[in-house]
Amino acid sequence: MKKIKLNLLIKKFLIQILIILVTSSNAYAYIGLGPLLPMLGTIIAYVFIGIISILGIIVYPLRIIIKKIKNKKNKNKEAQNEKN
Asked: Domain for residue 53, yes or no?
């Protein structure tokens, strides 16, 4: 019995929302800069985080490769110095 009443209430509520959305007109309301400023800050933060992560993905492995190359060169020089 309660489930039937609940379903009926939900249907009435959804029909009322549908009627309001269909019959409403434009509000022409001015929101202002309030919501815009945090949104711009968020966009700037996401762009910055994206750039940092892309650089991290590219630069970090390059640093490791460069260190390995330098270490090999140093070992080769030490080996040549020991032979002489």
From this structure: yes
Distances 84 to 74, 80, 81 between C-alpha atoms, Å = 15, 6, 5
Rounded to 5 degrees, φ, ψ at 35 are -75, -20
What φ, ψ does residue 5 adopt, rounded to 5°? Answer: -65, -40
The answer to whether residue 31 sits within a structural domain is no
> What's at 29, amino acid-wise?
A
CA-based nearest residue to 54, from 42, 46, 43, 64: 46
Instruction: Give domain status of residue 47, yes or no.
Output: yes
Under DSSP, the state recorded for 56 is H
CA separation (Å) from 69 to 62, 64, 77, 81? 11, 9, 12, 18
pTM of the entire structure? Answer: 0.46
Kindly report, residue by residue over 12-31, the tens digit of the pLDDT.
999 999 998 888 888 777 77
